[in-house]
Amino acid sequence: QGEGCSTSSFHRQVRTMATRKVGFVDRAPSWEVLKRLADKVGPLPKRNGADARALERRFGQQGTPRVKLYRDHAAWCPYCQKVWLQLEEKKVPYHVEKINMRCYGDKPPSYVKKVPSGLLPALELDGKLYTESATIAMLLEETFPEHSPLLPPQGDPERRAAEMLMKMERQLFGAWMQWLTSNWMDGANRMAFERALGQVEKALGMTPGPFFLGGGFSLVDIIFAPFLERMVASLLYYKGYRMRNNSKWPHVERWFKAMEERPTYMGTKSDFYTHVHDLPPQLGGCASNKDSKQYQEWIDGKAWEFPLQPIVDESLEPGWPEDPREDALEAATRILENKDAIIRFALRGCGEPGARPVWAELSDPTAVSAVEYQPDFDAALRYVVLALLEGVDKVQSSEHALSLVDGGEGRRVDPVLASARYLQLRVGVPRDMSFPAARQLRAHLHWLMSRLQDA
C-alpha cells in the first residue's frame, strides 16, 4: 500500500531507466548466517495483545472456537477493527478468514456466495452468519456475557449514556468525512468538525476516568477507536490539522493515552502512513488543503531518514512504545520468516503492471515480478537484514560493507532501487509488523537506496 505516484507512471519510470555501468559488491552474509545472527541477537520478546497475522485465537481455552471472523487481509477496515478489538477484549476464542477489500480486486467467489454484497466484516457464530459491525457487537455481548461484559445492563443509566455516545460517534464521523473528502468550504468544514469533536471532548470530560463511561473501558471506546485513530492520521496529512497534543482537546488526548496502554488495542492499531494511503481507495478520495504539505512530506518519507527521532509524547505520531534494538530485530525476523515471498513481491517494482488494475493506487495483485533480478535484490535485502541486526555503522566498518564497483561488475543497481522503493512504500501496519518495527525497516531501506544512489 502507499501511493508515491500512480501505478502507470511508476512502471514507466522503471522501464525507461538507463542501464548503469556501476554495480554493488555482494559481501552480505548468507540467509543461514543471518538467521543464526538473529537467534543470537534475540529472541524476539513475546508481546501480549492482538496479532494481525494470527488465524486463530484461543486465549488458553479448550475446544473448537464457536466464532469465525471474516476480516480484511490488510487490516485497513475500521469496521473489522471494531469486531476484532471486541473479541480480543472479551477473550472470546475465534478463527479468522481474511478477505480482500474491493480496492484490492475481486472478492473470492466462496465469500460472495455467503455474503452477496461482499461487505466486511462478517461473523459466523455456531455456523450462523451475521453481518454489520453494530449487529455483531450486540450479538457478542448477548452471547458471551461471562466474557468481560463491555456494556452496562439494560435499565442502567450508563446504558442509556452508552447509546447516546454511540450516536455521537456517527455525528463525528459525518463531520470528519465532510471535511476530509472535500476541498470546498474548507474553513466551514473545519469548524463543523471541531464542533462535533467538541461534543466528544465534553463527554469525555464528564467521567472521572479517561474512558467514555464512568465504569471504565467499554464497547463505546471500541466503537470510537477506529475512526478517532484514522481522524488523527488523515487530518494531519490532508488538512495539516493536529488532533494530538492540541490544547483544545485535553480529554481526547487523555483517552488516546489510556487506549495506548491496552495491548489489545495496540495490536490492532495502524500507523499514519498506512492510514493516509488506505483511506482514499475506501472513501473515493481525500482532499488536501494548503496547510498539509509539510506533514505529507514528513509522513511519506522524511520520518524514515536516519537518525530516527525518538517517539515521545510530543512527537507528531505519539503513542508507540519503542526499543530500537528490539524493533529492528522484529523487522529482521519478519523478513527472515518470509524472505522468498518478500523478494518476489518487491520485484514487481521492476516488473510489469498487472493486466487487471485495481482501485488502490500502487496495489497491483496481478503485477508480473521481474524474477531475472532475483539475485540482485536477494543480495540487497541481505544487506538490509544485516544492518537491522548489527546497525548501519557497524556494517559499513566491517568486511561486509556495502560498496560500489565500476565497469558493470557486481549486482545491478537499478532493479534493486526500484524494488526497494516498491517494498518500502508497501510495509503495512499492523498487517506486517508493529509501527516501530516498520519504521526501522523503512529507514534501513532508505539507507540502502541512499547508498546505491551514489552510483
Reconstruct the topology from this structure:
Blueprint: H1 7-15, E1 22-24, H2 31-41, E2 56-57, E3 67-72, H3 78-90, E4 94-99, H4 109-114, E5 122-125, E6 128-131, H5 133-143, H6 157-180, H7 186-205, H8 219-239, H9 250-259, H10 263-268, H11 272-283, H12 293-299, H13 324-337, H14 339-346, H15 374-390, H16 392-396, E7 404-406, E8 411-412, H17 414-424, H18 435-453
Parallel strand pairs: 3-4
Antiparallel strand pairs: 1-7, 1-8, 2-4, 3-5, 5-6
Keywords, please?
single chain, 455 residues, alpha+beta, 18 helices
Q: Which stretches are poorly predicted, pLDDT < 50 over at least 5 residues?
A: 1-18
Q: State the secondary-structure class.
A: alpha+beta
- In what range is the share of β-strand residues? 5-15%
The string of secondary-structure elements, in order, is: HEHEEHEHEEHHHHHHHHHHHHEEHH
How many helices?
18
Distance between the termini: 28 Å
Helix content: 40-55%
Molecular shape: globular
Rg from Cα:
23 Å
The number of E-state strands comes to 8
Structure description:
There is one protein chain. By secondary structure, the protein is of the alpha+beta class. Helices cover 49% and strands 7% of the residues. The protein contains 18 helices and eight strands. Strands 2-4-3-5-6 form a five-stranded mixed β-sheet, with helices on one face. Helix 3 packs antiparallel against helix 8. It is globular and about 80 Å long. The N terminus is likely disordered.
